[in-house]
Design a protein that fits this description.
Elements (H helix, E strand, L loop, with lengths): L2 H13 L5 H9 L3 E5 L13 E14 L5 E6 L11 H4 L8 E5 L3 E6 L21 E7 L44 H28 L6 H29 L5 H20 L47 H13 L1
Helix pairs in contact: 4-5, 4-6
Amino acid sequence: MKLEEIIEEQNQGLLKTTKNKPLVDAIVNRHPITFYYSGPRKPKKKSVKAGYRVKAEPVALGAHKTTGNLLVRAYIDDPSVSKRGTPGKVGKEKSNYGWRTFLASRMSNVQVVKDETFNTIREKYNGGGDDKSMSVTYVSTDFSQTPPKPKIGDTKKVEPTAKPSEPTVSTKPSEPTITKQTRDVDAELKKFDTELEQIEKDIKQSLENYKKYKNSQDEIKYVNQLKDLNKKKDELLTRIANTISDIGKNVGSDDKSKINKFTNRVSTKKKDLNVIVPTPSSKPPKSPSKPDEPEAKETLPSVKPKEKPEKDADTYNLSEGFINRVKKLIIYN
């Protein structure tokens, strides 16, 4: 099986999942959809107001130009929630004609209004070609069959019908067609080269740190760091392989030559990035010594100096001189 056939088969399978098939049917059969959207809140400048989009008109479904995530293009108006407003509230210019893009992963409680169809081609509609926000448009609305408009000057009053007329479609849902894919091959390959160089640099630095701090308390830190980098490397190589397979469709000979050279570079890098994560040492980690801290010396208890007894004021001086004076006084009397 050719590479183009493999990619097309994968894309067709993606559109037939339980979650995405109702979106595809709504776009093909021109049915409005009501859903709750939980847009990103950060950064504040690019935040999207969360809430219900009521009877939005989906016209295209494809892959986001930079992230590859599934993206829906739809036209909204009152009473849908919108941060920058809707045509019914702030006018067409300020609301950018009501056209919005929604990440399918952030859409929930999707309800297809199957008893209604949208037949008006909104202003700024691109005619069903490739969407500028999408690297590949998987399915888009076909407005080639529209209800006839009343002739100018026809005074006959046209009564509104309770139910809009259904577009003429076959009983079997038409398979979505994949339109031409447009990708910047140089930019994508350059981005992968930068990521590979960075992860190679990080692994080299972690290995040096591990060798430096082996058998210390910090050893386990750098072992875990190497494990994380090894996992990150494997995820990057898987993403590169998937992208190379994806962009292989509808590219010219020049791009194919660039892809082949890039693939050879990646094969060489794999050998350089092949790191065996070391096992932590079983030896107990050495406790780091505290620098410039003198050892505590054992000190002996100091001997208190002898205290001289204080003289008692009531104590008599019984020296020999004192006794003689007492004797003289007795004889004199």
